[in-house]
């Protein structure tokens, strides 16, 4: 009996200091929440920490690297060792938290021009890595961007912009999803400012379902109807083809490659080149961009997804 009394007294004394009470459990849970946790690559990271870049790999040797800042897949190397994504000569260092002029910047919630900054804010924001899914046939990362105090100062809406970037044996894919977390619709324009590597602009031919489409030449501020399905680049180019969502190919006789850009959801295609701008290294890249240039209404509801898609593949000639 004496022993039992001592134990009860001891427990009461210890509990008075909160070692077994609710405050102790809360402190313990907080300590556990702050403890390092294992990640998919086997390393330990504190909650909220994540790598600056993620490497997607396929067993056939294909590889893509995505940076969390801007959600930019800045390199894609095929199984044949071909670098597909391009970049400007004046692009920042990939480790800098700046907009990267290369790869695949996200233009959201405005492609531009418009009421807010050109091409929106997404390409300059830190995306949140959500999930990694690696299987024999693909390697995928999911990222999202959500409304913050910073984004609301620019565009006052509650949203989720999510994209899945998937490396497959023969292509790289982007599934882009826009979700409206408000109680009424809002409009967006958006696109992917896709940079593609070329040997030289003089060696490439761009082909697509352009003929008969409305063609907006934004360098000359003119509108016409395209008369050909092919184009070459020999001057500064900023052309938007309206309602043109079929595959576009770039044949590069210098690299000996054919690159195909396929899109869904986006209504238009932009071809852009700062031809003659040596500071940008104009001769080593071309931008072929899937774009939704006309405002599209995003319905409210966290389970209502408005979807867009891009796929890039590259094969030898």
General description of the model:
The chain is mainly beta and 317 residues long. It folds into two domains: 2-35, no CATH class; 44-316, Beta-galactosidase, Chain A, domain 5, CATH 2.70.98. Helices cover 10% and strands 41% of the residues. It has three helices and 22 strands. The chain has a nine-stranded antiparallel β-sheet with strand order 7-8-9-10-22-19-18-13-16, with no helix packed on it. Strands 6, 11, 12, 14, 15, 17, 20 and 21 form an eight-stranded antiparallel β-sheet that branches. The chain has a three-stranded antiparallel β-sheet with strand order 3-4-5, with no helix packed on it. Strand 14 (214-217) and strand 15 (222-225) form a beta hairpin. It is globular, with a radius of gyration of 25 Å. Mean pLDDT is 89; it is low at 1-33.
Summarize it.
This protein is mainly beta.
Q: What is the CATH T-level topology of the largest domain? A: Beta-galactosidase, Chain A, domain 5
Give, in spatial order, the strands making up the sheet with the most strands.
7-8-9-10-22-19-18-13-16
Largest sheet data: 9 strands, antiparallel
What level of helicity do the residues show?
10-25%
Look at the structure and give the CATH class of the largest domain. Mainly Beta
* Overall SS class: mainly beta
Number of domains: 2
Tally of alpha and pi helices: 3
- What's the count of strands? 22
Return the average pLDDT rounded to an integer.
89
Essential attributes:
mainly beta, globular, 9-stranded antiparallel β-sheet, Beta-galactosidase, Chain A, domain 5
């Amino acid at each position: 009996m004496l022993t039992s009394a001592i134990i009860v007294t001891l427990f009461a004394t210890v509990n008075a200091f909160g070692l077994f009470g609710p405050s102790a459990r809360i402190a313990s849970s907080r300590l556990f929440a702050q403890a390092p946790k294992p990640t998919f690559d086997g390393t330990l990271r504190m909650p909220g920490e994540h790598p600056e870049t993620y490497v997607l790999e396929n067993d056939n040797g294909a590889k893509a690297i995505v940076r969390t800042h801007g959600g930019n897949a800045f390199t894609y190397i095929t199984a044949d060792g071909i670098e597909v994504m391009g970049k400007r000569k004046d692009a920042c260092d990939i480790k800098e938290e700046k907009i990267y002029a290369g790869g695949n910047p996200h233009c959201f919630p405005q492609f531009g021009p418009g009421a807010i900054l050109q091409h929106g804010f997404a390409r300059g924001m830190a995306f949140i890595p959500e999930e990694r899914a690696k299987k024999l046939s693909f390697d995928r990362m999911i990222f999202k961007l959500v409304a913050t105090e910073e984004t609301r100062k620019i565009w006052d809406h509650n949203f989720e912009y999510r994209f899945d970037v998937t490396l497959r044996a023969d292509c790289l894919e982007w599934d882009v999803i826009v979700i409206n977390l408000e109680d009424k619709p809002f409009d967006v324009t958006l696109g992917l400012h896709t940079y593609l590597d070329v040997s030289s602009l003089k060696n490439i031919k761009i082909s697509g379902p352009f003929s008969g489409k409305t063609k907006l030449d934004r360098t000359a501020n003119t509108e016409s109807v395209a008369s050909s399905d092919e184009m070459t680049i020999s001057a500064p180019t900023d052309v938007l083809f309206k309602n043109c969502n079929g595959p576009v190919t770039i044949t590069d006789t210098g690299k000996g490659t054919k690159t195909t850009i396929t899109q869904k959801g986006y209504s238009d295609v932009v071809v852009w080149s700062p031809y003659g701008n040596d500071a940008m290294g104009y001769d080593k890249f071309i931008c072929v961009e899937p774009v939704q240039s006309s405002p599209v209404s995003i319905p409210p509801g966290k389970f209502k997804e408005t979807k867009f898609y891009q796929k890039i593949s590259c094969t030898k000639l």
